[in-house]
Amino acid sequence: SDPRQIYGRLQGEVEVLDDWTTRLGVGFTDTRLRTTNPFFGNGGSEGDRVKLDAQTSYAMSLGETIDHRLTLRFEQEWTDFKNLFAGGDRSTKHNNQTSGIFEYRFSWNDRVAFAASVRADRNRRFSNEQPYRGELSVKMPWDTTRLRVSGGKAVKNPGFFELFGFTPGFFVPNSDLEAESSKGFDVGVDQSLWEGRIQGAFTYYQSDLRNEIVTVFGPGGATPINIRDRSKRRGFEFEVSSQLAPNLDAHLSYTYAIAKQNNGTGYQREVRRARHIASANLGYRFFRDRALVDVSVLYNGRQYDTDFTQGFTPVSVALSDFTLINIAGSFRVNDRVELLARIDNLLDNQYEEVFGFNTPGIGAYGGVRMRWGR
């Protein structure tokens, strides 16, 4: 293959008043990919994207305790894509999208924080959407507990490869794909204990994904489709951090997740989504805080993936759980030079995150970070 990617962005910012800021920007992406394939022939793809954006924000304070911020944003995006494989649709495909975003934020004396945003998308190829999000957090009168809740809707359009860019002869595009959309919410509590030496957080989340895009396989090849039934995600997250000593910090986290999708015969667990994920981290600072050693233990529970080596009918396979131990360290020589080192997968464990793909064994890395200027 012979890939080429060029990115660029120009941005300017103007502060009209002390509390009023406006930013203008333009960016572009130019991507070219040429491939030589003994089965499907020579080909590749070409793509260009240009994006204009303008944003203005106004902040207003009422006394010393109440703050407001209003933000308006405009985006205009043009995208072109061309599939270069022989036998496929080699015409240039176009799309453009115009978006307007409104956001409002409010805070009162670090006790109440509220934010709401809405986005209006006008798309040439897909139905117009209005994603939105809201969040609220309130600190209790005893100051050690904060309650929070958030929710909203998100939208993701299919990409050009899914619509037009698959390799002819095996991957079959689907120009009738619809955008994915998800609605969800989360509720949680933050708790401080022992005069702030222990910080804990618990969050429950729930979301439903509609029109999820998945790839199905059959005798005619592979093609992406929309799943009409909802894909369901539920779970909770728990984390706690503590300063065990003036130079010793610890952090623990655990996530329990249930992710299911309907494949036509009933709901099944989604691939590559472990039900249990946990981590533990211990950081020790010494030599007058110039040196740091950090040890982390990562656990990834059993999960499922798809085996495509058994023919045109994919088979579900289980990937074993695994545990990784990583060590990182740094030493600040002076204000401008810092030495870095780390060891990943200290026990040289063998594991799979994707079926059939090896993962790195033990690895050691080192580097130097240097700073210039004031």
Task: Kindly describe this structure.
A hairpin with an 8-residue loop joins strand 4 (66-83) and strand 5. The protein has 374 residues and is mostly beta strands. It has one helix spanning 160-163; strands at residues 2-17, 20-37, 41-62, 66-83, 92-108, 112-123, 132-139, 145-156, 180-193, 198-210, 212-218, 221-227, 231-245, 248-262, 267-269, 276-286, 291-300, 303-307, 315-319, 322-332, 337-344, 363-370. The mean pLDDT is 88. The chain contains one helix and 22 strands. The two termini are 44 Å apart.
Instruction: Output the radius of gyration.
Output: 25 Å
- The CA-CA distance between the termini, in Å, is 44 Å
- Secondary-structure-derived class: mainly beta
* Oligomeric state: single chain
Number of helices: 1
Low-pLDDT regions: none
- Please summarize the sheet with the most strands: 18 strands, antiparallel
* Number of distinct beta strands: 22
Elements, N to C (H/E): EEEEEEEEHEEEEEEEEEEEEEE
Proportion of beta-strand residues: over 45%
Helix content: under 10%
Shape: globular
| Overall pLDDT confidence | 88
